[in-house]
TrEMBL record:
InterPro entries the UniProt entry points to: Phytyl_CoA_dOase-like (IPR008775)
Taxonomy, superkingdom: Bacteria
Name this protein carries in UniProt: Phytanoyl-CoA dioxygenase
GO molecular function: 2-oxoglutarate-dependent dioxygenase activity
Amino acid sequence: MTSQGPGPERRHLLTSAQMARFVAHGSHRMDAVVPAAMNERAISVFDAGVPHARDGATVDEAYPPGSFVRELLELPEIAGAVHSLVGPDPLIDHHAVHIRHARNGEAQPLHADAIIDTREDAFDVQLMYYPQDVTLDMGGTLSVPGSHLRRINETDTGRYQNVRGQTRLVCPAGTVQFLHHGIWHGGRRNDSDITRYMFKIRFNPTVKQRLLWNTEDLAAPEVLAELRTRFPWYENASGRIEYLNRSRLWAALTGDPAFDLDYWSTRVSNRPQRVLPVR
Ligand SMILES: O=C(O)CCC(=O)C(=O)O
Ligand SMILES: [Fe+2]
Protein backbone atom coordinates (compact mmCIF):
# COMPACT_ATOMS: atom_id res chain seq x y z
CA MET A 1 0.00 0.00 0.00
CA THR A 2 2.97 2.35 0.32
CA SER A 3 5.15 3.86 -2.37
CA GLN A 4 8.18 1.95 -1.08
CA GLY A 5 6.52 -1.45 -1.54
CA PRO A 6 6.60 -3.44 -4.77
CA GLY A 7 2.79 -3.32 -5.06
CA PRO A 8 0.53 -6.33 -5.44
CA GLU A 9 1.48 -9.19 -7.71
CA ARG A 10 -0.16 -9.21 -11.09
CA ARG A 11 -2.19 -12.34 -10.30
CA HIS A 12 -3.99 -10.44 -7.54
CA LEU A 13 -4.95 -7.52 -9.74
CA LEU A 14 -8.37 -7.35 -11.34
CA THR A 15 -8.67 -8.39 -14.97
CA SER A 16 -9.93 -6.10 -17.73
CA ALA A 17 -13.22 -8.01 -17.76
CA GLN A 18 -13.61 -7.41 -14.02
CA MET A 19 -12.81 -3.72 -14.46
CA ALA A 20 -15.33 -3.47 -17.29
CA ARG A 21 -17.86 -5.14 -15.03
CA PHE A 22 -17.09 -2.53 -12.35
CA VAL A 23 -17.61 0.24 -14.91
CA ALA A 24 -21.01 -1.23 -15.84
CA HIS A 25 -22.25 -2.32 -12.40
CA GLY A 26 -20.47 0.19 -10.15
CA SER A 27 -19.28 -2.57 -7.83
CA HIS A 28 -16.88 -5.44 -7.42
CA ARG A 29 -17.64 -8.17 -4.91
CA MET A 30 -15.23 -10.67 -3.36
CA ASP A 31 -16.93 -13.38 -1.32
CA ALA A 32 -15.27 -14.73 1.84
CA VAL A 33 -11.94 -13.17 0.93
CA VAL A 34 -11.01 -12.39 4.55
CA PRO A 35 -9.84 -15.42 6.54
CA ALA A 36 -12.04 -16.73 9.37
CA ALA A 37 -9.44 -15.93 12.04
CA MET A 38 -9.65 -12.23 11.13
CA ASN A 39 -13.44 -12.23 10.93
CA GLU A 40 -13.54 -13.65 14.44
CA ARG A 41 -11.43 -10.76 15.76
CA ALA A 42 -13.21 -8.08 13.77
CA ILE A 43 -16.26 -7.44 15.91
CA SER A 44 -14.29 -6.77 19.09
CA VAL A 45 -11.99 -4.47 17.09
CA PHE A 46 -15.01 -2.60 15.72
CA ASP A 47 -16.71 -2.45 19.13
CA ALA A 48 -13.52 -0.92 20.57
CA GLY A 49 -13.60 1.60 17.69
CA VAL A 50 -11.17 2.18 14.84
CA PRO A 51 -9.20 5.37 15.71
CA HIS A 52 -10.34 8.40 13.76
CA ALA A 53 -8.21 9.28 10.74
CA ARG A 54 -8.04 12.86 9.47
CA ASP A 55 -9.74 13.43 6.14
CA GLY A 56 -7.17 12.72 3.46
CA ALA A 57 -4.81 10.72 5.70
CA THR A 58 -2.35 8.33 4.10
CA VAL A 59 -2.75 4.61 4.74
CA ASP A 60 0.37 4.74 6.94
CA GLU A 61 -1.10 7.52 9.06
CA ALA A 62 -4.56 6.01 9.37
CA TYR A 63 -3.62 2.35 9.89
CA PRO A 64 -0.19 1.75 11.44
CA PRO A 65 1.58 -1.49 10.52
CA GLY A 66 0.26 -4.33 12.68
CA SER A 67 -3.19 -2.80 13.15
CA PHE A 68 -6.25 -4.82 12.21
CA VAL A 69 -7.24 -2.58 9.30
CA ARG A 70 -3.70 -2.57 7.93
CA GLU A 71 -3.75 -6.37 8.02
CA LEU A 72 -7.05 -6.28 6.13
CA LEU A 73 -5.61 -3.99 3.46
CA GLU A 74 -2.52 -6.15 3.11
CA LEU A 75 -4.50 -9.27 2.19
CA PRO A 76 -3.23 -9.85 -1.35
CA GLU A 77 -6.66 -9.97 -2.99
CA ILE A 78 -7.76 -6.76 -1.27
CA ALA A 79 -4.49 -4.96 -2.00
CA GLY A 80 -4.82 -6.09 -5.63
CA ALA A 81 -8.37 -4.79 -5.97
CA VAL A 82 -7.54 -1.44 -4.32
CA HIS A 83 -4.53 -1.03 -6.61
CA SER A 84 -6.58 -1.89 -9.71
CA LEU A 85 -9.34 0.58 -8.86
CA VAL A 86 -7.53 3.57 -7.33
CA GLY A 87 -3.83 2.79 -7.66
CA PRO A 88 -0.96 3.01 -5.16
CA ASP A 89 -0.93 5.40 -2.20
CA PRO A 90 -4.64 6.25 -2.06
CA LEU A 91 -5.80 8.65 0.63
CA ILE A 92 -8.37 7.82 3.29
CA ASP A 93 -11.32 10.09 2.69
CA HIS A 94 -13.02 8.67 5.78
CA HIS A 95 -13.87 5.39 7.38
CA ALA A 96 -16.73 4.22 9.57
CA VAL A 97 -18.08 1.18 11.35
CA HIS A 98 -21.72 0.80 10.29
CA ILE A 99 -23.84 -1.12 12.73
CA ARG A 100 -27.43 -2.16 12.02
CA HIS A 101 -28.77 -3.21 15.38
CA ALA A 102 -30.82 -6.38 15.82
CA ARG A 103 -34.54 -5.69 15.22
CA ASN A 104 -33.77 -2.03 14.60
CA GLY A 105 -36.93 -1.40 12.62
CA GLU A 106 -35.55 1.15 10.18
CA ALA A 107 -33.87 1.27 6.77
CA GLN A 108 -31.59 4.03 5.51
CA PRO A 109 -33.00 6.10 2.67
CA LEU A 110 -31.54 5.28 -0.74
CA HIS A 111 -28.58 7.61 -1.24
CA ALA A 112 -25.19 8.20 -2.78
CA ASP A 113 -22.31 9.08 -0.48
CA ALA A 114 -21.76 12.38 -2.21
CA ILE A 115 -23.26 15.59 -3.36
CA ILE A 116 -23.44 15.77 -7.13
CA ASP A 117 -19.98 14.76 -8.27
CA THR A 118 -19.35 15.57 -11.91
CA ARG A 119 -15.98 13.89 -12.39
CA GLU A 120 -15.93 11.78 -15.53
CA ASP A 121 -12.33 10.61 -15.46
CA ALA A 122 -11.78 9.82 -11.77
CA PHE A 123 -13.71 8.16 -8.98
CA ASP A 124 -13.41 7.12 -5.35
CA VAL A 125 -14.14 3.62 -4.18
CA GLN A 126 -15.72 2.51 -0.97
CA LEU A 127 -14.52 -0.74 0.50
CA MET A 128 -17.22 -2.46 2.56
CA TYR A 129 -16.19 -5.40 4.71
CA TYR A 130 -18.71 -7.77 6.31
CA PRO A 131 -17.11 -9.92 9.02
CA GLN A 132 -20.25 -12.03 9.61
CA ASP A 133 -22.51 -14.11 7.41
CA VAL A 134 -25.19 -11.66 6.28
CA THR A 135 -28.63 -13.20 5.73
CA LEU A 136 -31.51 -11.52 3.90
CA ASP A 137 -33.18 -10.31 7.09
CA MET A 138 -29.99 -8.83 8.61
CA GLY A 139 -30.05 -5.49 6.79
CA GLY A 140 -27.30 -6.08 4.25
CA THR A 141 -26.43 -3.08 2.10
CA LEU A 142 -28.92 -2.56 -0.70
CA SER A 143 -27.51 -1.18 -3.93
CA VAL A 144 -28.76 -0.49 -7.42
CA PRO A 145 -26.41 -1.97 -10.04
CA GLY A 146 -25.59 0.48 -12.82
CA SER A 147 -26.71 3.58 -10.89
CA HIS A 148 -23.27 5.02 -10.13
CA LEU A 149 -23.05 7.22 -13.24
CA ARG A 150 -26.61 8.61 -12.85
CA ARG A 151 -25.48 11.55 -10.81
CA ILE A 152 -27.61 12.43 -7.81
CA ASN A 153 -27.37 14.59 -4.74
CA GLU A 154 -26.97 12.45 -1.60
CA THR A 155 -30.42 11.41 -0.23
CA ASP A 156 -32.43 13.09 -2.98
CA THR A 157 -33.31 9.53 -4.09
CA GLY A 158 -34.58 8.72 -0.57
CA ARG A 159 -38.21 8.64 -1.70
CA TYR A 160 -37.56 5.57 -3.87
CA GLN A 161 -38.44 2.55 -1.79
CA ASN A 162 -37.50 -0.13 -4.31
CA VAL A 163 -35.89 0.03 -7.74
CA ARG A 164 -36.07 -2.77 -10.32
CA GLY A 165 -32.85 -4.76 -10.30
CA GLN A 166 -31.74 -3.62 -6.84
CA THR A 167 -29.75 -6.12 -4.81
CA ARG A 168 -29.75 -6.64 -1.07
CA LEU A 169 -26.40 -7.96 -0.01
CA VAL A 170 -26.50 -11.54 1.29
CA CYS A 171 -23.00 -12.91 1.75
CA PRO A 172 -20.71 -15.24 3.65
CA ALA A 173 -18.48 -13.93 6.45
CA GLY A 174 -15.36 -12.18 5.20
CA THR A 175 -16.94 -10.70 2.09
CA VAL A 176 -15.66 -7.37 0.78
CA GLN A 177 -17.33 -5.28 -1.86
CA PHE A 178 -15.98 -2.20 -3.58
CA LEU A 179 -18.52 0.40 -4.63
CA HIS A 180 -18.08 3.36 -6.97
CA HIS A 181 -18.73 6.53 -4.94
CA GLY A 182 -21.81 7.38 -6.99
CA ILE A 183 -23.77 4.16 -6.50
CA TRP A 184 -27.28 4.41 -5.04
CA HIS A 185 -27.32 2.36 -1.87
CA GLY A 186 -28.48 2.12 1.73
CA GLY A 187 -28.31 -0.12 4.76
CA ARG A 188 -31.55 -2.07 5.13
CA ARG A 189 -33.72 -2.73 8.14
CA ASN A 190 -32.36 -5.47 10.35
CA ASP A 191 -35.24 -7.82 11.19
CA SER A 192 -32.99 -10.48 12.68
CA ASP A 193 -31.77 -11.09 16.21
CA ILE A 194 -28.15 -10.51 15.20
CA THR A 195 -26.53 -7.09 15.10
CA ARG A 196 -24.91 -6.58 11.68
CA TYR A 197 -21.46 -4.98 11.35
CA MET A 198 -19.87 -3.46 8.28
CA PHE A 199 -16.63 -1.51 8.07
CA LYS A 200 -16.29 1.02 5.30
CA ILE A 201 -13.27 2.89 3.95
CA ARG A 202 -13.51 5.47 1.20
CA PHE A 203 -10.36 5.80 -0.87
CA ASN A 204 -9.37 8.83 -2.95
CA PRO A 205 -6.93 8.09 -5.80
CA THR A 206 -3.66 10.01 -6.02
CA VAL A 207 -2.72 8.85 -9.52
CA LYS A 208 -4.56 8.85 -12.82
CA GLN A 209 -6.74 5.75 -12.79
CA ARG A 210 -5.38 4.46 -16.05
CA LEU A 211 -4.59 0.80 -16.82
CA LEU A 212 -3.82 0.01 -13.18
CA TRP A 213 -5.15 -3.54 -13.41
CA ASN A 214 -3.92 -6.69 -15.19
CA THR A 215 -4.49 -5.66 -18.79
CA GLU A 216 -3.59 -8.97 -20.46
CA ASP A 217 -7.23 -9.48 -21.51
CA LEU A 218 -7.88 -5.89 -22.63
CA ALA A 219 -8.95 -7.00 -26.11
CA ALA A 220 -11.03 -9.98 -24.97
CA PRO A 221 -14.70 -10.02 -26.08
CA GLU A 222 -15.84 -10.27 -22.44
CA VAL A 223 -14.77 -6.66 -21.93
CA LEU A 224 -17.26 -5.24 -24.43
CA ALA A 225 -19.89 -7.74 -23.30
CA GLU A 226 -19.56 -6.44 -19.71
CA LEU A 227 -19.68 -2.82 -20.86
CA ARG A 228 -22.93 -3.52 -22.73
CA THR A 229 -24.81 -4.82 -19.69
CA ARG A 230 -28.33 -3.44 -19.47
CA PHE A 231 -30.06 -3.07 -16.11
CA PRO A 232 -33.80 -3.51 -15.60
CA TRP A 233 -34.40 0.00 -14.25
CA TYR A 234 -33.01 1.80 -17.29
CA GLU A 235 -35.63 3.82 -19.12
CA ASN A 236 -35.63 3.51 -22.91
CA ALA A 237 -34.47 7.08 -23.39
CA SER A 238 -32.38 8.00 -20.35
CA GLY A 239 -30.91 4.52 -20.16
CA ARG A 240 -28.92 5.38 -23.27
CA ILE A 241 -27.07 8.04 -21.33
CA GLU A 242 -25.64 5.31 -19.11
CA TYR A 243 -23.94 3.71 -22.12
CA LEU A 244 -22.46 7.06 -23.03
CA ASN A 245 -21.25 7.61 -19.45
CA ARG A 246 -19.69 4.16 -19.40
CA SER A 247 -17.97 4.73 -22.71
CA ARG A 248 -16.45 7.92 -21.35
CA LEU A 249 -15.29 6.23 -18.17
CA TRP A 250 -13.76 3.31 -20.07
CA ALA A 251 -12.03 5.79 -22.43
CA ALA A 252 -10.51 7.52 -19.40
CA LEU A 253 -9.52 4.26 -17.69
CA THR A 254 -7.82 2.91 -20.79
CA GLY A 255 -6.32 6.23 -21.91
CA ASP A 256 -7.98 5.84 -25.29
CA PRO A 257 -10.04 8.99 -25.98
CA ALA A 258 -11.38 7.44 -29.18
CA PHE A 259 -12.93 4.47 -27.35
CA ASP A 260 -16.65 4.22 -27.94
CA LEU A 261 -19.33 1.68 -27.31
CA ASP A 262 -21.50 1.69 -30.44
CA TYR A 263 -20.88 5.31 -31.57
CA TRP A 264 -22.43 7.04 -28.53
CA SER A 265 -19.61 9.43 -27.67
CA THR A 266 -18.33 9.69 -31.25
CA ARG A 267 -21.62 11.23 -32.35
CA VAL A 268 -21.98 13.77 -29.55
CA SER A 269 -18.35 14.83 -29.55
CA ASN A 270 -18.15 15.33 -33.31
CA ARG A 271 -17.24 19.00 -33.81
CA PRO A 272 -15.44 19.19 -37.16
CA GLN A 273 -12.77 21.86 -37.23
CA ARG A 274 -12.08 21.84 -40.97
CA VAL A 275 -13.21 25.17 -42.41
CA LEU A 276 -13.99 25.29 -46.11
CA PRO A 277 -12.95 28.35 -48.10
CA VAL A 278 -15.80 30.71 -48.90
CA ARG A 279 -16.83 30.42 -52.54
O1 LIG B 1 -24.93 0.13 6.68
C1 LIG B 1 -24.91 -0.05 5.46
O2 LIG B 1 -25.11 -1.15 4.95
C2 LIG B 1 -24.66 1.08 4.53
C3 LIG B 1 -24.13 2.26 5.20
C4 LIG B 1 -23.86 3.34 4.22
O3 LIG B 1 -24.67 3.81 3.51
C5 LIG B 1 -22.52 3.81 4.02
O4 LIG B 1 -21.62 3.30 4.63
O5 LIG B 1 -22.31 4.72 3.22
FE1 LIG C 1 -23.85 5.42 2.34
